[in-house]
C-alpha cells in the first residue's frame, strides 16, 4: 500500500478543529516513491521527465527502445499514449494528474512496480556489486527492466510472469558458466520461466516492450527459459517460437 502524506495531514487538521484547504488534485499529489509536480508534454525536460520515461519504458512500440534522456520528445509522447491506452486513460500523450495517479497505483515505495521486486532480480548478492558496472548502475538497470516486465505482464492479461534470475557479479556469472559478455553482468538481463504464459508467448510479447535482446527456445542453451535484456543493437533469437 502506498504511503501518502496528504491523509495524515488532513487527519491532524480535523483533530485540531482546523478546516483544511481544498485537497490538491494536480500532479503534486504526493507519493512515497517519487512525486511529479507538473504536467509533462512534448518539449519539457528534466529529471521528472526521466523518471516518467522509466515508468513507460515498456511502451515503446514493436521493436522500439525508449531513451531515458530526460527529454520529452515524440518517442516519449508515443510511449505515454500507449501507457494511457493500456489503462483506459485519455490517450493524449500528455502526462498529467490521471497518468501520474495510475503510475502511483502501480509502484511500491521503493519505486519498483507492484508485481516485481529487487530481490527476485538478484540471486547473486545483496548489494549488487561485482558486475561490469557499479552497483548503483546495475540496480538502476534492473529497475528499468522491471517496468518493462510490468508493461509486458499487463499486456498478457495481468497473469504472473516467473522470474528465475537477473543480475550476476563476475563470480556468480562464472559459477553458472555464463558468457563473459552476458548482460546479466550489467543488471539489465532477466531470465523468465514458462509459468502460466509459456516460453513462446513470452518471447513473442517481449518484442513490444523495449527489449533489444530476446533469447528463447531454439537458441543454444535457452530451451528452458526466455532471456530478455537491453543492449545497444537488436538481437532476437527464439527460432522455435518464430522469433
UniProtKB/TrEMBL annotation:
Domain Peptidase M15A C-terminal: 115-229
InterPro entries found in the cross-reference section: Peptidase_M15A_C, Peptidoglycan-bd-like, PGBD-like_sf, PGBDSf, Zn_M74/Hedgehog-like
Entries under Pfam families matching the protein: Peptidase_M15_3, PG_binding_1
GO function terms (MF aspect): carboxypeptidase activity
Gene3D superfamilies in UniProt: 3.30.1380.10, PGBD-like superfamily/PGBD (1.10.101.10)
UniProt signal peptide: 1-21
Peptidoglycan binding-like domain: residues covered: 45-103
Keywords: Carboxypeptidase, Hydrolase, Protease, Signal
UniProt name for this protein: D-Ala-D-Ala carboxypeptidase family metallohydrolase
Amino acid at each position: 500500500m502506498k504511503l501518502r502524506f496528504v491523509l495524515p495531514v488532513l487527519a491532524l487538521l480535523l483533530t485540531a478543529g482546523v478546516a483544511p484547504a481544498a485537497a490538491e488534485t494536480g500532479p503534486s499529489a504526493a507519493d512515497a516513491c517519487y512525486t511529479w509536480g507538473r504536467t509533462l508534454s512534448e518539449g519539457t525536460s528534466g529529471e521528472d521527465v526521466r523518471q516518467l520515461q522509466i515508468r513507460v519504458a515498456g511502451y515503446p512500440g514493436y521493436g522500439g527502445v525508449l531513451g531515458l534522456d530526460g527529454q520529452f520528445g515524440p518517442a516519449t509522447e508515443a510511449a505515454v499514449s500507449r501507457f494511457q491506452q493500456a489503462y483506459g486513460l485519455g490517450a493524449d500523450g500528455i502526462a498529467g494528474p490521471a497518468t501520474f495517479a495510475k503510475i502511483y497505483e502501480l509502484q511500491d515505495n521503493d519505486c519498483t512496480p507492484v508485481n516485481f521486486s529487487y530481490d527476485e532480480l538478484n540471486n547473486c548478492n545483496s548489494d549488487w556489486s561485482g558486475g561490469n558496472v557499479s552497483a548503483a548502475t546495475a540496480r538502476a538497470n534492473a529497475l528499468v527492466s522491471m517496468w518493462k516486465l510490468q508493461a509486458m505482464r499487463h499486456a498478457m492479461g495481468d497473469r504472473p510472469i516467473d522470474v528465475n534470475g537477473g543480475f550476476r557479479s563476475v563470480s556468480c556469472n562464472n559459477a553458472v558458466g555464463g558468457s563473459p559478455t552476458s548482460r546479466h553482468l550489467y543488471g539489465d538481463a532477466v531470465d523468465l520461466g514458462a509459468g502460466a504464459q509459456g516460453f513462446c508467448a513470452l518471447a513473442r510479447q517481449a518484442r513490444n516492450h523495449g527489449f533489444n535482446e530476446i533469447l528463447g527456445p531454439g537458441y543454444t542453451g535457452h530451451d528452458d527459459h526466455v532471456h530478455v535484456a537491453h543492449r545497444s543493437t537488436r538481437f532476437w533469437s527464439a527460432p522455435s517460437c518464430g522469433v
